Amino acid sequence: MKNDMEIKGRLKWYLRWPIILNIIVGLMTLGVTVIDHKAGALMGVFFLVHLVFSIVVSFYSKPAITEELINFGLQYGQVQKKLLHELEVPYGVLDSTGKLMWENEALTRVIGNLAVRKNIQSIFPSLDLQKIQEMEEKCFLEIVHEDRVYRTEFCRMHVEDFAEHNDLVGFNHPENLLIAMFMFDETDIRRYIRENQEQKLVAGIIFIDNFEEAMNSTEEVRRSLLAALIERKITKYMQSYDAIITKVEKDRYSFVVNHKHMAAIQSSRFSILDEVREINIGNEMAVTMCIGVGMNAISYGQSYTWAQNAIDLALGRGGDQAVVKAGDKISYYGGKTKQVEKGTSVKARVKAHALKQIILGKDQVIIMGHKIGDVDSFGSAIGVYRAAKSLNKPAHIVINEITTSVRPIINKFKNNPDYEPDMFLRSSEAAAIMNMETALVVVDVNRPSYTEGPELLNRTKTVVILDHHRQSSESIESPVLSYIEPYASSACEMVAEILQYITDGVKLRPIEADAMFAGLMIDTNNFSSKTGVRTFEAAAFLKKSGADITRVHLAFRDSMEIYRARAEAVRHAEMENDMAYATCPAEGLESPTIVGAQVANELLNITGIKASFVFTRVKETVYVSARSMEGEDGINVQLVMERIGGGGHSTIAGAQLQNMSEAQGMELVKRTIANMRKEGAI
User: Is the distance from CB of 245 to CB of 234 less than 8 angstroms?
Assistant: First the structure.
């Protein structure tokens, strides 16, 4: 040990001072001798004595000094070792292979006394030893041992680094690598954080979305009993989770519940939805309700605001469901029943009046549908166009791509002397003429990324939404007017209602009535799906305005290529349980996604099929068209499509899948349906 040790640094220079001093004295002696020989001789005697004394002292003192340094270092090391050994933080030293070489008392208490030094992974099996060995300088890993959770820090230690930075002692044979391990017990603090989180208050709102309709479907003498049963069910359910609930209005409740109960409520998928729906004391219409909950908010006020946003989203999706908003994450529960058509058109009248005031207050109107526009999108845009022109406002329709389904109708408007040449604009052209005095009306879509021109939404503050699809977490921000009715059969039905109330002077031209009637007819699959009383009322209004059913049918006859593609897709369709899956060929078709939607409709005509899913690949995107039967025999395809990033409504929905084949898309949908059935979500 002593032979491997050398004096370094400042101490080395300090011990060399006698030699330097002897050199200086020797030079002084020479100088004095030149001046005075007698004085020089005397100085020479003193120099020799000093030189002999320095050599003797250096020869005998250096080993003693070295020994003292070693003793001091050992004592100092013992102090450090004692401090580390008694440190309350579990600490250990590993070699490069992960073998535990040394541990302090705290780590011994954690792992117990080891008769044989073991590898750290054998002590903590869940530990990722490879990650420790590949770390650059340090890394943090979580270790769970005997119901305790430790945040463990691993640090590289190079012994040569110690020798390099040590000014007193150097080692000729340093070790290569050691790993220091510190374990910080976070069990208690995590428990406190969890308990604090569980005690947070979560705000929620309950709204009976068809209260009036359910009451009107019940005998008058039983209505008070029905209201009491609804209130009792809701109150009993919420109190079972220690919630505080207050009835705000006859059809609205507010509640506060601890965060710790939300996991149980969500795992039951808000069973109160089914319990209330099962109430039957003679009411012809089942009672449905919406629940909005705001979770993980910074304050109770923010939680209540999120709950209001959630209840609005639930109503916009057709009701009979619960929506939980936790920041940007939104979860949906329920929504499996068919939306019930509202018997009154008061809402349509109010929206029509609001739309009229908006249009009158602006210089021009831009109407925009969704990408790859269909007949419903185009027909509803034509209806809004006519409303704007009736109010003497310039209007333009944004359409980038003319699909085969829209071409027979749009050709009647192009080069027509009754319409302006700039009636139809591309999104880039519309952006050039838009300003803050422009009203932008979005029809048949409520998701900004699906619109013809998402960039147009930021060019004006006056945005109006008219749509019949369910809302999703992606929505257009801050519209001045939002009229979203999932129970409506089509956007054309909604616009037809609005036209009847917006002004007395609206008069549709026959080709405009044809366009709207075509949209109504296509979206209802020739009035066989998702139709209600108001659907036929809208059709009657359009017929009275000049729509010709024969003319519409003739305009939408298929070409031989489309008919063959549709037949080929149906012929190769797969049947699995009560679902039909098919791939629609896109080659040679101008608008393959439209053909895919037609195939999905045709597959529902097969006995035993409750839902159909058709996959059409266009470039790098697979378009999924989902359809289902109405009533108890069908499933809510909108819930399925939402799981894979799409949307729609209960019987007609779709999605767009990027960078995958039709087979991969089909497998994804099958797997999603299997998981949802296992969860009870459909």
Answer: yes
Nearest CA to 470 out of 459, 452, 485, 457 is that of 485
Q: Are 376 and 491 in contact (CB under 8 A)?
A: yes
Q: Is the dihedral of CA 161, 162, 166, 169 positive or negative?
A: negative
C-alpha torsion 436→485→357→547, nearest 10: 100
Instruction: Using alpha carbons, select from 367, 389, 387 the residue that is nearest to residue 378.
Output: 367
The length of the chain, given as a count of residues: 682
Q: HEC states along 20-59?
A: HHHHHHHHHHHHHHHHCHHHHHHHHHHHHHHHHHHHHHHH
Q: Determine the Cα–Cα distance for residues 122 and 193; give it in Å rounded to an integer.
A: 31
Q: Are strands 621-628 and 611-618 parallel, antiparallel or unpaired?
A: antiparallel
Residue 453 neighbours by CB under 8 Å, 6+ apart: 368, 398, 400, 427, 428, 430, 431
DSSP states of 581-610: EEE---TT-SSHHHHHHHHHHHHTTSTT--
- Determine whether 588 is exposed, middle or buried from the number of CB atoms within 10 Å of its CB (0-12, 13-18, 19+): exposed
| Cα 569 from Cα 565, distance rounded (Å) | 6
Assign 298 to helix, strand or coil. Answer: coil
Burial 58-94 (b: 16+ CB within 10 A, else e): eeeeeeeebeeeeeeeeeeeeeeeeebeeeeebbbbb
Please report, as a single letter, which amino acid is at residue 231.
E
Q: Note the pLDDT tens digit of each residue in 475-507.
A: 888 889 988 887 788 999 999 999 988 877 678
> 92 pairs with which residues across the strands?
103, 181
Contact status, residue 610 vs residue 636, Cβ threshold 8 Å: no
Reduced to 3 states, what is the DSSP secondary structure of residue 269?
coil
Q: Tell me the three state secondary structure of residue 180.
A: strand
Rounded distance, CA 365 to CA 396, Å?
Answer: 7
**DSSP H/E element including 397:** strand 395-398
Distances (CA, A) of 520 to 378, 486, 548, 557: 11, 15, 13, 16
* DSSP code at position 341: P
Q: From the first residue on, what is the mean pLDDT of each consecutive set of 10 residues in the chain (682 residues)?
A: 55 69 80 81 80 73 65 64 78 82 83 73 83 82 86 79 49 59 88 82 92 88 92 94 92 93 90 91 88 91 91 80 88 69 67 90 94 90 94 93 86 90 93 92 91 92 89 80 86 92 82 93 81 88 90 82 90 90 87 88 89 92 89 77 84 88 93 87 74
